[in-house]
Amino acid sequence: MDGVPPAPSPAGLSVYVAVSQLLGLTVLATTGAWLGRYRGGVGWHSPLQFNAHPLCMVLGMVFLQGDALLVYRVFRHEAKRSTKALHALLHGLALLIALVGIIAVFESHRDKGIPHMYSLHSWCGMAAFVLYLLQRFLQ
C-alpha cells in the first residue's frame, strides 16, 4: 500500500485549513489579551498562577491538538514517517502544555485553600484530559 499515491486533496481543503488556523490563532490571541488586560497577566508562583490554566488549555487542547489532527490531511503527499512524527510531536506538545495548565490550577487552589475538583467543569475537564492521555497509551 506504500507504493500507491494518495488520493487528491478534497476541494477547498486549503481554505478550510487556513480558516481553522486563523480561528485558532484568534482564540489564542483573544485568550491572551483577556488574561493580560482583565486578569492581570500570567505568572507562576504568584497570585496570577491560575491564569496559566485557560491559556495552556486553549493552546494545548484546542490549537495544538487540532493541528495534530490536521497533519495527515495537510501533508498527505509527504512521507508517512514524517507525518507520523509531526503528528506525535504535536500531540505530545499538546499533552505537555495541558498538563502545565492542570498543574497551575492545582497549585493555585492549594495555595489559596480552595478545594480541588469541586465543580462540574473540573470533573469534565479532568475526564477529557485523562481520556486524551489514555489514547496515547492504549494504541
Describe this structure in words.
It comes from Malurus cyaneus samueli. It is a multi-pass membrane protein. The chain crosses the membrane at residues 12-35, 55-75, 87-106, 118-134. It is found in: Cytoplasmic vesicle, Secretory vesicle, Chromaffin granule membrane. This is Transmembrane ascorbate-dependent reductase CYB561. This protein is an all-alpha fold and 139 residues long. It has a single domain, classed as Up-down Bundle (Four Helix Bundle (Hemerythrin (Met), subunit A)). It contains 4 helices and no strands. It has helices at residues 13-38, 52-74, 80-112, 120-137. Helix 1 (13-38) packs antiparallel against helix 2 and helix 2 runs antiparallel to helix 3 (80-112). The model has no long low-confidence stretch (mean pLDDT 93).
Briefly summarize what is shown.
This protein is mainly alpha-helical and 139 residues long. Helix content is 72%, strand content 0%.
Question: Helix and strand layout, with pairings?
Answer:
Layout: H1 13-38, H2 52-74, H3 80-112, H4 120-137
Catalytic activity: monodehydro-L-ascorbate radical(out) + L-ascorbate(in) = monodehydro-L-ascorbate radical(in) + L-ascorbate(out)
Protein name: Transmembrane ascorbate-dependent reductase CYB561
Cofactor: heme b
